[in-house]
């Protein structure tokens, strides 16, 4: 019998699926289930002979699990592949992998036919401690959006959908108020420096409250997408966000540069790596190196 290690965030999203329900689903599908809540001590304890990691939660839960894996605290040898059960609010990683609409029942029922998918990561130098990102790294508007959202409760946001909308509304106001800053940027040796309100190095298609900045991104293609919003595009970006607030499907051509080795600094002190905000020295040079195929996910559901 194959052994599944279930890493669960019981507070993710709308909290519809509890521990007992998830364990029952896994065992009914014919697997041995080792349950761990990522909210409790010891969840990252190493277990021998685990065939699969089932991560039930949102983007933060996936990153938390992967961070332990990359530091070797669950396994000192190559770790088993990861399957995402998308239970979070944004689920940007699951969306990039095409599994965002699958229920836990659907994910677990199709484990036997899941397909492997390599997933790159971005390695960061110059951010203090060693950091990496799965989704994105960036300067400008998004670190400030994250800080504001963590600072105060979002009034009236009781569901994931309401939380996403509130985040978009907050982002819209930030765009209007934010002053462009100078960014020194080199991508694979070519210079792209300029004044921007945002510079995001993307590995997934979306970030934050489901903002699709790199919808053609493939996290296993050995390339990162550097998305830039210049001073002249501030109004167009604000209009794009307003369309999302109003549930209007709209496309926007963002300035995007693809590359593997990136050097970047900003006339500011705050950056973000995925959902973590970091304070660094003003105009501190950060170097980003792609780590191709650092992870492997299993993709459930029908092939697309």
- CA-to-CA gap between the ends? 30 Å
Determine the mean pLDDT.
Answer: 89
Largest sheet: 12 strands, antiparallel
Number of helices: 7
Low-confidence residue ranges: none
Percentage of residues in DSSP E strands: 25-35%
How big is the Rg? 19 Å
Percentage of residues assigned to helices:
10-25%
Count of DSSP strands: 18
Oligomer: single chain
How would you sum up the global shape? globular
Structural class: alpha+beta
**Helix and strand string, N-terminal first?**
EHEEHEHHEEEHHEEEEEEHEEEEE
What do these coordinates show?
- With 304 residues, the chain is α+β, with helices and mostly antiparallel strands.
- Helices cover 25% and strands 34% of the residues.
- The strands form three sheets. Strands 5, 6, 7, 8, 9, 10, 13, 14, 15, 16, 17 and 18 form a twelve-stranded antiparallel beta sheet that branches. A four-stranded parallel beta sheet has the order 2-1-3-4, with helices on both faces.
- Strand 1 (3-8), helix 1 and strand 2 form a beta-alpha-beta unit.
- Helix 5 (141-151) crosses helix 6 and helix 6 (160-177) packs antiparallel against helix 7.
- The mean pLDDT is 89.
Quickly list its features.
304 residues, alpha+beta, 12-stranded antiparallel sheet, 4-stranded parallel sheet
Topology:
Layout: E1 3-8, H1 19-28, E2 32-37, E3 52-57, H2 59-70, E4 82-86, H3 92-97, H4 104-109, E5 115-125, E6 131-133, E7 136-140, H5 141-151, H6 160-177, E8 181-187, E9 190-191, E10 194-202, E11 206-207, E12 211-212, E13 224-230, H7 234-245, E14 255-259, E15 261-266, E16 270-273, E17 276-279, E18 286-299
Parallel strand pairs: 1-2, 1-3, 3-4
Antiparallel strand pairs: 5-6, 5-18, 7-10, 7-16, 8-9, 8-10, 8-15, 10-13, 11-12, 13-14, 15-18, 16-17
Helix pairs in contact: 5-6, 6-7
């Amino acid at each position: 019998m194959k052994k599944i290690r279930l890493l669960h965030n019981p507070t993710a999203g709308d909290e519809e699926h509890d521990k007992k329900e998830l364990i029952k689903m896994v065992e009914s599908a014919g697997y041995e289930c080792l349950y761990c809540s990522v909210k409790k001590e010891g969840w990252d304890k190493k277990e021998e002979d685990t065939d699969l990691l089932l991560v039930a939660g949102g983007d933060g839960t996936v990153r938390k699990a992967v961070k332990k894996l990359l530091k070797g605290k669950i396994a000192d040898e190559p770790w088993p592949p990861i399957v995402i059960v998308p239970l979070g609010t944004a689920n940007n990683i699951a969306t990039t992998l095409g599994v965002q609409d699958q229920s836990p029942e659907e994910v677990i029922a199709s484990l036997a036919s899941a397909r492997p998918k390599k997933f790159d990561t971005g390695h960061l130098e110059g951010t203090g401690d060693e950091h990496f990102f799965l989704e994105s790294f960036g300067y400008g508007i998004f670190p400030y959006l994250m800080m504001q959202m963590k600072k105060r409760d979002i009034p009236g946001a009781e569901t994931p959908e309401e939380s996403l909308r509130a985040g978009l509304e907050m982002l819209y106001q930030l765009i209007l108020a934010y002053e462009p800053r100078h960014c020194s940027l080199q991508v694979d040796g070519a210079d792209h420096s300029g004044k921007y309100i945002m510079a995001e190095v993307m590995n997934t298609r979306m970030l934050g409250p489901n903002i699709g900045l790199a919808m053609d991104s493939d996290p296993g293609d050995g390339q990162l997408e550097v998305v830039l919003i210049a001073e002249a595009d501030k109004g167009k970006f604000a209009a794009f966000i307003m369309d999302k607030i109003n549930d209007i499907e709209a496309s926007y051509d963002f300035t995007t540069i693809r590359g593997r080795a990136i050097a970047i600094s900003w006339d500011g002190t705050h950056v973000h790596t995925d959902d973590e905000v970091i304070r660094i020295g003003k105009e501190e040079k950060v170097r980003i190196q792609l780590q191709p195929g650092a992870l492997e996910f299993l993709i459930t559901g029908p092939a697309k």
